[in-house]
Design goal:
By secondary structure, the protein is of the alpha+beta class. It is built from 4 helices and 6 strands. The strands form 3 sheets. It has a two-stranded antiparallel ribbon with strand order 1-2. Strands 3-6 form a two-stranded antiparallel sheet. Strand 1 and strand 2 form a beta hairpin. The radius of gyration is 22 Å and the shape is extended.
């Protein structure tokens, strides 16, 4: 059912335990924030259909739910003119050795901060007037500095994604699109850290 050239694929899978709506979205057309907006729209439609099988959503003829609003607000008339496909992609500057193992697969480690651990991080962020993301990024840099011990004064970067919705006054874009960007903050290790 999934077509490679389509930006959005949707299927309704019928099963004895209940139906499941499957949505696959290309990251080129939407990031996780946009997907959440899209799923909220679908959930609202399905909730209304559950109450009233004759329900038909009204078409949205008054506005677009994409990046156009943001480009217009920034005075960008041709967003593709800002895109340079020949621009060099920054390569990772950090590497770890695989003690006796060769692999071509990417490995990831995920860690969730729940309950009391997350509350401590949020409290620290509030105390210092910074975001939780800033606390976590600082911890990441300090961990990398402690493990790899780069020379003091030499800048190292970590590529992270940033959701531009966080820069909006109400923190909500109401846009089904990709508003994520990649940034590479660069920090050098201090001598005494």
């Amino acid at each position: 059912f999934f077509q490679e050239d389509q930006q959005i694929n949707i299927a309704l899978v019928h099963a004895p335990g209940g139906d499941t709506l499957v949505v696959k979205v290309s990251h080129a057309s939407s990031d996780a924030g946009g997907l959440k907006q899209y799923l909220d729209l679908l959930a609202g439609i399905y909730s209304e259909l559950q109450k009233n099988h004759e329900y038909r959503p009204s078409p949205n003829n008054r506005s677009r739910r994409d990046q156009k609003y943001y480009f217009d607000a920034l005075g960008i008339s041709d967003p593709l003119a800002c895109f340079d496909p020949q621009a060099p992609v920054p390569f990772p500057e950090w590497s770890f050795t695989y003690h006796g193992t060769e692999t071509k697969e990417m490995h990831m480690t995920l860690r969730r901060f729940m309950g009391e651990d997350f509350e401590r991080i949020m409290h620290r962020a509030r105390q210092n007037g910074v975001t939780v993301t800033s606390i976590l990024l600082t911890a990441m840099f300090r961990s990398m500095f402690a493990v790899l011990k780069p020379s003091p004064g030499v800048e190292r970067g970590i590529t992270v994604s940033f959701d531009l919705r966080n820069a909006l006054p109400n923190r909500s874009a109401q846009a089904v699109c990709n508003l994520s960007v990649g940034i590479c903050p660069r920090i050098s290790r201090l001598e005494d850290e």
